[in-house]
Specification:
This protein is 56% helix and 6% strand. It is α/β, with parallel strands linked by helices. The protein starts with a helix and ends with a helix.
Length: 488
């Protein structure tokens, strides 16, 4: 600009026409150049503003897309969480049974869970070589889970993938010692080998269930507080399968089973059937009565009344039958079952199954009527107090009358809605179990219900037990509890 002013001044001071013409042309040229420069600067500014608008628009679209993706993920996760809170392997599975309520069945169903699980997780591959390899690996893993001698088996394969539940318990030993509890704490004891080496799924010296583990348990002593019991459940969820049975069917099956010649189990030769105390001199009934009393007091419908005195009377009745007859003074429990008249032999066997602690036979049997009664109530209370606990009560009669349907119901409870365990797989497994049971029932001495002698005597004996002044109340009350649990 200074240069332009200087030219104009020179033009005015110039004396010749030619010189002024040159200066005029120069001024015009410079003016045009300035206009062009200014236009180009403005054009660049407009272009930069346009690019910035495009960037803002793209950023806005990107943010909108990210927000939509986040919303979709959140919605999908929430929907999945609502429909299926956890994968079925996250749960702890606690299978509970009692004497004459499904010992053999429970172990076979445990094996069935593992077979279905392993088969579903080992895909066949893309070609025949891979298929053969997968089938071989399948058989190896299933054989590992079928090993009845092993107490614990890991459900994680060599690659580190979980293909099944960790399982604890075998034919000889439950996951936790049966019919025993920690004194003072009053929940089931941990396995005897815990202090040497903690097994899979057992974390401490207290009763505790771990997710991803399957526990099989006979006749647990669950006498601890509600808070202690709840804290023992897996934080990711616990599924309890509770095998229960009509108490009259249960006690008669017990009597006929053990009075066979020869008897199937050795402990009946050495048992003291009226021993109702634990080593600390506390009785089984003293642990059960608080739960039973609370349940009876909360009932709106009339139920048979059972008191601590009634249970002590069963002990006295038991003692009046055992080794009091001079001909049976030194006789074993088994000999009493054979030589007493049938009604007294059944009453003695039923008393043992009701009030005995199990301490006299190394906790092999005894007291399972009271334990079953107690645990039905405790499991119901546990499920009512926590959404993380699911309980399914299953009756022996269901598996006898319709094995396939009962097995399918069991598998659906374990595996939930998981699509990997297809309906076809579950149905096939249930069908195979039904065929196996039909074959077993024709040859096994463990199943006594088909015995013609039992069938003829059963109703008469049942009515005798229902009216018995010592045993009738607790058996009738237990029948109500069992029927209500199975109807849910």
């Amino acid at each position: 600009m200074f240069f332009l002013v200087h030219i104009i001044y020179m033009m005015k001071s110039s004396s010749t026409t030619t010189t002024r013409s040159i200066y005029t042309l120069l001024v015009l040229t410079i003016s045009v150049l300035l206009v062009i420069l200014r236009c180009r600067i403005r054009s660049r500014q407009l272009h930069e503003l346009s690019v910035l608008d495009d960037i803002n628009t793209n950023n806005k679209k990107l943010l909108q897309a990210q927000f939509q993706e986040l919303f979709n993920d959140t919605y999908t996760h929430a929907k999945k969480k609502k429909n299926d809170k956890h994968h079925y392997h996250d749960y702890a599975i606690f299978i509970v049974y009692y004497h004459k309520t499904g010992c053999v069945l429970s172990h076979k169903l445990k094996k069935l869970i593992n077979e279905v699980d392993v088969t579903a997780h080992l895909s066949t591959g893309e070609n025949e070589v891979k298929q053969k390899g997968r089938r071989h690996e399948n058989k190896v893993l299933i054989k590992k889970f079928s090993n009845s001698a092993k107490f614990e088996v890991s459900g994680i394969d060599d690659t580190g993938e979980r293909v099944a539940f960790d399982t604890l318990g075998n034919w000889e030993h439950s996951s936790f010692p049966k019919r025993q509890h920690i004194e003072g704490y009053n929940c089931p004891k941990p396995p005897d080998g815990y202090k040497r080496q903690a097994p899979l799924g057992i974390h401490s010296d207290r009763f505790e269930l771990k997710g991803g583990s399957l526990y099989i348990q006979a006749s647990p002593d669950i006498f601890c507080s509600d808070d202690d019991l709840l804290s023992a459940m897996s934080t990711k969820g616990t599924k309890i399968v509770h095998f229960i049975r009509n108490p009259f069917e249960m006690t008669m099956s017990n009597y006929f089973y053990h009075s066979q010649d020869p008897t199937p189990e050795k402990w009946v030769h050495t048992d003291e059937p009226c021993q109702h105390l634990y080593k600390n001199k506390e009785s089984l009934s003293s642990h059960v009565m608080p739960t039973l009393s609370t349940w009876m007091s909360n009932r709106t419908l009339t139920v048979p009344k059972v008191t601590q005195t009634d249970l002590h009377d069963i002990v006295d009745m038991c003692k009046s039958l055992f080794q009091t007859n001079h001909t049976l003074k030194d006789a074993s429990f088994y000999e009493h079952l054979l030589k007493l008249d049938q009604s007294d032999a059944l009453r003695l066997a039923t008393a043992q199954m009701t009030i005995a602690s199990g301490a006299a036979n190394k906790h092999s049997a005894g007291g399972d009527i009271l334990r079953m009664t107690n645990n039905i109530i405790r499991f119901q209370n546990l499920q009512a107090s926590s959404s993380n606990v699911q309980v399914m009560s299953l009756g022996m009669g269901d598996f006898i009358t319709d094995t396939k349907e009962a097995t399918l119901k069991f598998l659906n409870f374990i595996f939930g809605d998981d699509e990997k365990i297809t309906y076809e797989m579950r149905l096939q497994a249930a069908t195979d179990r039904a065929k196996a049971y039909e074959k077993q029932s024709k040859h096994s001495h463990h199943i006594t219900s088909a015995n013609s002698k039992v069938a003829e005597s059963k109703e008469v004996l049942r009515q005798m037990l229902k009216r018995d002044k010592h045993l009738g109340s607790i058996l009738n009350l237990t029948e109500i509890l069992v029927n209500e649990a199975l109807s849910k």
